[in-house]
Write a structure and sequence with these properties.
Length: 152
């Protein structure tokens, strides 16, 4: 037993839970969002976002980042022009799963008619941000066990 415990300690592994999952992030704002700042946090850590070339809209993405299994706070904040709006939730991260987290500005729930979407939440957008009237800031996600071939 001592040999097993020593092997576990030296390998950096644990005999108890505490595994992790991978989370990819995509942010999409209408063209009116050009010049606004966007921050996505996962477990209170900022996720580095990279702009994607698009045809006018603002699209940012992040390479998958690791998240500890368990309740994980998530936030997407859009700021600029003297205003800010944020949408928050808690994602129940499952060990060895892969998630796609999306933050979008649009008037309707993006999960309506979405096969595989787990849930969504939204917040009102401050009009001073200059985004289209009636748009809300939505946060939604999909998830599946690693190694599962799922097409959404």
């Amino acid at each position: 037993m001592r040999v097993l415990a020593l092997a576990v300690l030296l390998s950096g592994c644990s005999l108890v839970g505490g595994g992790s999952a991978e989370v990819g992030v995509l942010v999409a704002l209408p063209a009116a969002g050009t010049g606004l700042d966007v921050e996505v946090t996962l477990d209170r850590r900022a996720v580095p976002l990279t702009p994607l070339p698009t045809t006018g809209d603002v699209t940012l993405f992040a390479q998958p980042v690791s998240a500890k299994a368990g309740p994980t706070p998530v936030a997407c904040t859009v700021s600029g022009r003297g205003a800010a709006s944020a949408v928050t939730t808690t994602l129940d991260v499952q060990e060895d799963w892969t998630y796609s987290l999306r933050c979008v500005a649009q008037p309707t729930d993006p999960t309506d008619g979405c096969f595989g979407c787990s849930a969504s939440t939204s917040a009102a957008l401050d009009p001073a941000l200059g985004l289209p009237e009636g748009d809300r800031l939505w946060l939604y996600w999909t998830g599946s066990p690693e190694g599962t071939d799922v097409l959404y």
